[in-house]
Amino acid sequence: MPIRPFIPLRSHDVEWPTLIVLAGCYGAYGVVTWAASGLGPVVSVVLLAVILALHSSLQHEVIHGHPFGNKTGNALLVFPPIGLFVPYQRFRDTHLAHHRDSFLTDPYDDPESSYLDLLVLHRLPRSLQYLFRLNNTLFGRMLLGPVMGLSQFYYTDCKRILRREKGVIRAYIYHLLGLAMVIDWLGSFASMSVGMYILAAYLGMSILKIRTYLEHQANESAPGRTAVVNDRGPLAWLFLYNNFHSVHHLHPRLPWYRLSAFFDKHRAALLVRNEHYFYASYTEVFRRYLWCEKDSVAHPLWSFHNRTLPVDMTGDNVHETKP
Prior knowledge:
By secondary structure, the protein is mostly helical. The protein has 15 helices and two strands. The protein has a two-stranded parallel ribbon.
């Protein structure tokens, strides 16, 4: 069966399932932060971490044109940076750059690649090389992935700000304004301490690392770089079924609540297309990779010999490093 095309939203269309989940997410956020003292520190932090992970999944939906056909209206829905760490506009820009499938997993041209240039890896101190190897296990990715990823992300963005890139500066100004709203809520209405909130935000990112851990692998074929995790459980719902990631990269505008059905309908063709980069469930992912590295830290197929200028491990100014 051929894989049919997908028709994006028109300007007057509304995706009600996404709006309902978004309303529920903000409602749960308000209740948990307000009632944190009664819930206790452990329960409130865990619940908030789950809510913040869901909010990030909803931001991802908005980036790809949901739930309205209007870009500004969509962005306003997820403007409050309740996840604290990443400005929405920077998330949007880097993620859309990631969707250039011909560059997927490239340690320089894919902003979301977890691979390093072999030459860069060998120049790192042994202790840092060990941390990158630990980060290549699922346990390490959940424990260290958020801080390692954010460190590289902020380092790159700081250099962009120093170069006075207006889009990046504007993104952080909006982010700071949004953070002021979050801080005002915490100070005026919530019973959760700032420390507990920051811990919950970090744990929320750790949960998201389960999804992103093996979404992509190095492969000569671009379609073969993107995975399918055929899971329909709580994690799949929390990730808004983006575990059917090969489907998402094929049709980025396909809404989350249609991804699993699309995979079921076109399963054979999709698995041929992505060269059977497939896992039956997140249980299988945990069993295979919780303590084991999924692959090498250095990109196994990428060669640095065509580079003519020195580069840093963040991949900043990637277009300046190519001949």
